[in-house]
Amino acid sequence: MFRRFEDNLDEELRSSLEMLVDRYIAQGLSPAEARRKARIEFEGIEQVKEKVRDRLRGSGLRALVQDVRYAWRGMRRQPSFTAIALLTLALGIGINTAVFSIFYGVLLHPLPYKQPERLAVIWGSFRSAGHARAPASGTILVEIARRNRSLADVAGIWSVSRTFTGDEPESVKCARVTPNFFDLLGVRAGEGRTFLQSDGGTPAIMLTDGIFRRRFGGNEGLIGKGVPMDRGNTLVGVLPANFQLQFAPDSNVPADVQVFDTFGPGLANQRLQYFIRVVARLKPGVSMADGQRDLDRVAAEISGAYTEYASENLRFTVVGMQADAVRDVKAALGALFAGSAFILLICCVNISSLLLARASDRRREIALRLTLGASRGRVLRQLLVEGALLCLMGGAAGVAVGWAGFRGLLAIRPERLARISDVGLSWPVLAFAAACSLAAALLFGMVPAIESFRLDLITTLRAGSRAVLGRMHRRTGGALVVAEITLGFVLVTGAVLTARTLSKIERVRPGFEPRQLLTFQIANGLTVKGMPEWEAEVAALPGVEGVGASTILPLDSDVPNWYSTYRPEGFSEAEASTLIADLRAATPGYLPTIGARLVEGRYFTPMDRAGGRPVVIVDDMLVRTTWPGQSAIGKKVYVEHVTGNGFEPILSEVVGVVEHLHNQSLTREVRGQIYMPFEQSPRSPMGFVVRTHVPPLSLVAAVRQKLHARSKNAALAKVRPMTAYVEREIAPVSFTAVLAAVFGGLALLLAATGIYGVLNYQVSRRRPEMGIRMALGAQAGDVQRLVLRQGLVLAAAGVLTGSASALVAARWLGALVYGVSPRDPLSYAAALVLLPVAALVGCWRPAWRAAEASPAETIREE
Question: CA 112 → CA 61, 117, 390, 492, 620, distances in Å?
Answer without folding.
Answer: 44, 11, 38, 38, 45
